[in-house]
Structures are given as C-alpha cells and as structure tokens.
Design goal:
There is one protein chain. The protein is an alpha/beta fold. Helices cover 33% and strands 20% of the residues. The strands form three sheets. A nine-stranded mixed beta sheet has the order 13-12-11-10-6-9-8-7-14, covered by helices on one side. It has a three-stranded parallel beta sheet with strand order 3-4-5. The longest helix is centred in the last third of the chain and has 19 residues. The chain binds nicotinamide-adenine-dinucleotide.
Length: 378
C-alpha cells in the first residue's frame, strides 16, 4: 500500500511511519528511503506538519484509538478493515470524524476488485430484478496460516473472525444489494484449531514440527508479528466454522458460511433476484447470469458468462485503485466507495452475529446509529 502511495514529485509521497517494533520500521526505511521519519510513538507522527494523511494498518484492536487521535490531530485517515472490534468503537470513530473537517475511508478493497465490480454492475443494471436472496460460501483455505498463528485467533484482540475475516463479505452483501442488515442469527464453533497446547508454544521450537501440517516458520516480511504461535494452543478462542443468517432492509435474506480449515480458497457468491440470478464460478474470473424468463430458460439463451480479468496490483488489482481513490477523496472531497458508515455497519453486523453464535443462535438486532450521528453520517 505504501508503494502505491509513494510517488514523490507526482502528487503524493510517503514520508513517515510508526510501529511498536523497530524491525518493521527498519524495513520501511529500506523500502521508502533512509530520510523517512520513523517512530514508535504515534503522537510524534501526528504532531508533524508535513503529514496530511495517515493510514492505520496495525492490528484491529488498535484502529479505534489511532483513527480518533489522527482525526483529532487534523489528518485525513484511511483505516484498514474491520473499522474497530466493537460497534461502540466504530461509533466513537464516526463521532471523531463528524467533529473533524477531514476525510475518512475504510480499506474495503473488495469493492475495488474487478470481479465484484462486475457483479455490482449486473445487480444495479436491474437485469436480475430486485435482489431477494444472497448466499455466500467462504472457503478460507489458508485459515491456519493467516488467522491462528497470532493475535487474529484471540477474541480479546479481534472479537471474532466474523469481524476480522467476514467484515469484507458482510460489506459485500450490503454493497451488492444496496441494503444493510437489520437482524442476525448465527451458529459457530472451534472445530479444528485451538486445543490444549501451551499458550506460549511456537512452531520453531515445537517437537512435532516435522509432522504438523500447520507448521509455519514465521513471517519474513519485516514484521515483528512472528506468525508462528501454535494454532492448537489453549489461547485460541475464535470460531473457525460459522454460519450466519441475516435479514436485510428490503426483505432480503442472506446466508454467510465461513470455514477456516477448508482445503481450497474461494469466495462463492450467489444473488437471486425476482428476474434472475448471478453467481461467480471462482474467486477471480467468471460471473454467470441466468434469467427466469420462460422462453429464454427453455432455449438456454439467457445464460451469460462474463470473463473478468483481475487488474494488476495487490489484492486482485484492488490496492492501486483504492489508494488512488483515497488520494482523490483528499484532493476533491469526493465521497469514497468504501465509506465509514459501511465500515460501521459491517462491524455492527459481525459483532451481533458473534453475540448470537455465543448465545445459542439467539437472534440479535443491529444497533441503530446513536442519535447524535443520525443524519450526519452516510
Ligand atoms: N484489506 C485487506 O484485504 C487486508 C489484508 C490484510 C490485513 N488487513 C488488515 O490490516 C491490519 C493489519 O493486519 P496484519 O495481518 O498486517 O497485522 P500484523 O500482525 O502483521 O501487524 C502489522 C504491523 O502492525 C504492527 N503493530 C502491532 N501492534 C501495534 C500497535 N499497537 N501499534 C502500532 N503498530 C503495531 C506490527 O509490528 C506490524 O508491523 C488488520 O486490521 C487487518 O485486518 C487488511
């Protein structure tokens, strides 16, 4: 992301970084330049006059404070998803945004991926009629690698993987249908990861590393977050297998399924409308539309297959585009595609679903925006 923003002499330059550890800062200076300012104190960063905007890309539980402090210091802000790990945290961030005269957006890069943009265009064209049903199956093939070797697997730091991982998909369901969730019910459990291994056990010193399919030698990207805590340690307490049922405004019903020990990686979306349906056949490249009209169904004329090419760049080409959108938002005040309200509604839905699944499927209503924010945040 920094590389996308770092274009000295062409409108934007990355000039500074804060991290709690020295090693990633050293890595940052090697990539951006020895003259870049680095610190382990975020207030030192915020005090600088040569910084117009801040991107918060640290773990989820840090977003709330860093974003509020950056807005209060008069900086524009990009926050990674999930916006925060509680709904109240998101509302505090929205209030800080309303109180500032700065711009704020969320790192929902799926909104910038070609595949999902094509799906959004098809829904918005009206060809499948009014969307009424969304089914999303998320096969998280790298679940162990990405979510159970470090803080992601601990609810105190992430609330649950329905925020950390599903916040993208919940947002997609909202974005594609144009409606927010109003009620959820969920079930889930820890069926594969977690266990009784000591909480401080790491892969590099484990006797079973030769046989363990989850062995991970650690992160070599310069981060100090060495992603090699044992995935079967006792401290893992987020669900690796969940099903969420959602009722959205407009009477739309959605189901979201997420499994972190799947042997393949894929997000499969099906949207059924009053006139037809669409579905992506794989994670990146094909969308199929089928219409209900009797004559077309009979002759199979209505099947349309859209071949979609991912753009170049990280996250299926989304990273360069979302970075450009952030700069354009700062320069022109344009509303971003990934709004703070969308960030809040995704977290609120993920938190309510987490409460439900930890309370025997009991449904939860999504909390409305506080009165002070209603009519101010869109
Ligand atoms: N939009 C996406 O597709 C996408 C993809 C990956 C990660 N993310 C988000 O990015 C964020 C970071 O995820 P990650 O997997 O890179 O995390 P990570 O554990 O690798 O940490 C990222 C960096 O934050 C630093 N850090 C840790 N605690 C900190 C603190 N208290 N203050 C400042 N820095 C701290 C670490 O040293 C590391 O350099 C998460 O919120 C995650 O959801 C988003």
């Amino acid at each position: 992301m920094a590389a996308n923003w770092h274009n000295p002499g062409q409108g934007s330059a990355v000039v500074a970084a804060m991290d709690i550890s020295e090693r990633p800062l050293q890595h940052f200076r090697e990539r951006i330049g020895a003259e870049a300012f680095t610190t382990t104190d975020h207030q030192e960063l915020l005090a600088r006059d040569d910084i117009d905007a801040i991107a918060v890309m640290s773990p989820d539980f840090t977003h709330e404070d860093y974003v509020c402090d950056a807005l209060a210091a008069g900086k524009h802000v990009f926050s990674e998803k999930p916006m925060a790990i509680t709904t109240a945290g998101c509302d505090r961030m929205l209030q800080a945004w309303v109180d500032s005269d700065k711009q704020f957006m969320i790192g929902f890069n799926m909104r910038y991926m070609n595949l999902f943009r094509v799906m959004k265009d098809i829904v918005d064209s009206g060809v499948i009629g009014e969307p009424k049903v969304v089914w999303v199956r998320h096969f998280v093939g790298y679940g162990g690698d990405w979510y159970f070797h470090d803080w992601h697997g601990e609810s105190a730091k992430s609330t649950s993987l329905l925020l950390q991982k599903a916040s993208h998909d919940i947002d997609m369901i909202h974005w594609l249908t144009g409606q927010y969730t109003k009620r959820v019910s969920a079930s889930g459990s820890l069926d594969f990861y977690g266990g009784d291994k000591p909480d401080d056990l790491r892969c590099d010193v484990c006797d079973e590393q030769g046989d363990c399919v989850e062995f991970n030698k650690g992160d070599e990207t310069g981060s100090d977050t060495v992603r090699n805590q044992c995935v079967f340690r006792s401290g893992v307490d987020v669900e690796d297998n969940s099903v969420v049922m959602m009722e959205l405004d407009g009477g739309i019903k959605a189901t979201y399924m997420q499994c972190h020990f799947a042997s393949t990686y894929c997000r499969n979306y099906t949207i059924i409308g009053t006139e037809g349906q669409l579905e992506n056949l794989d994670d990146t490249s094909q969308v199929v539309v089928k219409l209900r009209e009797r004559s077309k169904r009979w002759k199979n004329l209505a099947d349309q297959v859209y071949d979609v090419k991912p753009a170049r760049g990280g996250h299926g080409g989304a990273d360069p585009v979302i970075c450009r959108d952030f700069l354009e938002m700062i320069r022109t005040g344009k509303r971003p595609i990934a709004t703070p309200l969308a960030g809040r509604m995704s977290v609120a839905t993920g938190c309510a679903a987490t409460e439900s699944l930890r309370d025997g499927w009991r449904p939860r209503d999504i909390p409305a925006l506080p009165d002070a924010l209603r009519h101010k945040v869109f």
